[in-house]
User: What shape does this take?
Amino acid sequence: MKGKRIMLADDDPGILDAVSILLEFEGYNVTCTPNGASLLTMQTDLPDLILLDIWMSGVDGRDICRQLKQNTLTSKLPIVMVSASKDIERSALDAGADGFLAKPFEMDDLLQKIEQYIS
Amino acid sequence: MAKQIPDNGYRDIFNNSKSTILVMDVDAPVYTILDVNDAYLQATNTTRETLVGKGVFAAFPANPTDEVSKNIERTIFSFEQAIQTKKPHTMSNYRYDIPIRGTDQFEERYWTTTNTPILDKDGNVSYFIHSPENVTELYKLAEREKAGIEALKNQRQQLYSTFMQAPVGIAILRGSRYIVELINPPLCELYEKTVEEIMGKPIFDVLYHARGLGFEGLLDNVRLTGESFKGQGVAVPLSRNGQVEIAYVDFVYEPFRENDGTISGVIVIATEVTEQVNAKKKLEEAEESTRLAVGAVGLGTYDLDLKTGEMATSLQFANIFGFEKPVSRKQYISVFHPDDIELRNKAHVTAIATGKLLYEARVIWTDLSVHWVRVEGKVFYDTSGKAERILGTLLDITEQRNSKEEQRKLITLVDNSVDLMSILNMDGTNSYINQAGMDLLGFDSIEEVTSTPIAELHDPVDFKQVESEVLPTVMSTGHWAGTMLVRHLKTHEIFPVFNNCIRIDDPVSGAPIAVGAVMRDLRPEIKAKQALADSEQLLRSITSAAPTGLWMSDEQGNITYINQTWADWTGLAYHEHMGSGWLTSIIEEDRQKAANRFLAALNNRSLYEVEFRIHHADGTIHWCVASGKPQYQANGTFTGYIGACVDITEQKNLQKQKDDFIGIASHELKTPVTSIKAYTQVLEKMLLKKGEKKEAGMISRMDNQLNRLNSLVGDLLDVTKINSGKLQFNPVDFDFNALIKDLTEDLQRTTEKHALVQQLTAQPVVHGDKERIGQVITNLITNAIKYSPNANQIIIRSSLKNNEVTLCVQDFGIGISQNNLNKVFEQFYRVSGDMQHTFPGLGLGLYISSEIIKREGGKIWVTSKEGEGSTFCFSLPVKINTI
Assistant: This one.
């Protein structure tokens, strides 16, 4: 479990910093990107899980999720979507997300979700 | 030898001759008088001196008053005849008046004169003798005799013609066979015979049908005794138009006496009186009829003796006065109405003076009923001129009087009518127009009304309508009603009236006798209509200017009116909104809702209010709120709706901006909360790892505060979602009691003071958004904890009844005042009063809870008592088929 790599995509630098500290504290390798679209250009060196924010300055996380899931290269990659709106959970799952977490979240809930998809 | 007359003796003879002699020269035309004898002078009242030597015509001028005799011409003619023929010439009985000397008068004289020429030895006329004989007396005597004979002749003629022309029949019958010696035409006519048929024949040969009826005896009696006989109205069989009929004759038989007094026949004088007899008979019959009629029509009769005061009355008279049989005059007078006694007395006084009694008065019967009577009478006076009797009749006129009273009321009504009422005769003039009508048309008097042809009450052009439409229609159908123009008689103002005409027919013959009309001046009505139209226009202007759409519907819900504002907003024409056309301007999404709400309100006659969006004429979508109020007539009949429609686009936009702002703000708030929470939790773990429990505890409490902050932000977000209709639900089946247990256990950890007591009695399965319902339960329990700081327990109770699960959370806290009880579920409600600031919160929790429960199809309510605590409950439908 330790050493697994998690890709963190959020347009807010505060969240990227806080969550990456949290995950690294738990022993994960964290890669951050404030630009959701950059995920689509990943070819090699894929993470074990992506934590994907939904509202990212001009980019809808669900579109990114949908494209990643349609791409055979990334279709098996677990994606947990995160949003400040609880109501968006269904549309996130509809877009192909494996899990959903509402902001702000409890640390235990985040870790539990991640562990659920990284086996 | 006989004695000889001396020569001068002839002069004596000349002078003494009784014959008048004048000797004249033949010196025509003067005829100078040569000599004259004494007799002449005497006859002509002249003297010798005035005559001899003068012309005869100068001496005897013609009487200027006698223009007939032409004596001068005749005299000259005679002179000339004697001179020419040399023989004497005589003029007989001619008039030559003699002047009365000393005067300019003449004396009438008639003369027979001979002019005798005296010849000289040569046989020529040397002079001639004019010898007039005064025959005046003889002439006048002859004249008188002649006149006497003429008069006698005339008298006879007159007598005969009188006899023949006498209007009575006259005949002279001679001898015992009564031969008709003379008969005049009237008697012939009476006998229906010609004079020839009767004259000279025995009368009874001609009038054979009168034989043996006793007339012969009557005639014999007159002839033999000399006593005349008079018959009056004697029935005689006479031929009439060839038929023998009974005629009535008045006749006299007089004896006809000869000069010596013997009676040789009978004079008959007869007049037919058949008509008079018949008339008399008829009169008698009429009198009888009148007697009968008097009884039949209820006329009472009376005979009042003014000298004795006694009065004889008929039975009818008594009955009219209310008595069963005739009574005394005093009793009759006693029943007169007290108010009419004076009138009756005056009428009697007047009657004595005028000879005629007439009055109408009331009498009161013993049953106290009042009756009107009319008393008429004629006063009879004695030879000294003193009134002695009154004869007359009495009539009960109660009914006439009453109907007269009705008529009077009717006339009063007509006279006081504000509408014109008139009677038009068939000759084209009005016989009556009431006062209102006279005022309307400008008549000054009823005389003016009756003398003015109706053509003058119209402009000639308008009168054509009367002639060609109104009158023919009334005549043919009996009725015409409509508007026409009339013209004021004086001002000539032409104005419209509504005229209602009827034909009035003679009740007996059925022939039209008049046209009755009732006219109403239409000017006030037209003025009122104009005023109404003006005010309508004003109203229209106001409603068009109003920044609000206005509408009306009928009782079926069909739109019957919209104002210009609404038409302008929608860009659709007025008629396109009528009926249910108004819905087309509403966007499809909202249309059904708007229609359904309206129909629901219409069915309940309740207030209508709905918000919807329309396609605005400016090409954008506008929000509107429409409202309507049911309308009723005074009698309670529902007539439809009147309503308004307000454009709330601006409000909606502001609301949306606010919601958007709060939504974005909340979202933005959550972002730093998320990172702070992450830092906090990592920090807590790091401190725990280092074994610094105290610091870690502080960080944990910080995390709790972050959760509170998050909860507040969540509430704000929820409210904006509710307002914008974006609150989403994710329904699932779940165990209601299990949810309560989980939440209660979690919440028990937040309080040490309160014991959360669970009393759960059923295990229902609910289909709904578990998280949102959990949010409600959490809210109720948190509130219970929050508002019962001094209590130590909170009871959480669930029950199942009628397929509804109910959850109640009871606290023993401060409670809620009765007047605020209904407000607790409103947005931003917070506990008011002293403790306002001591209880934190935005006042959104119960509002959100109530919205959630409503969306889940449940109910939420509260019971509370201030100072004792509150019980908040909600119920939700359960899924029938449990797991």
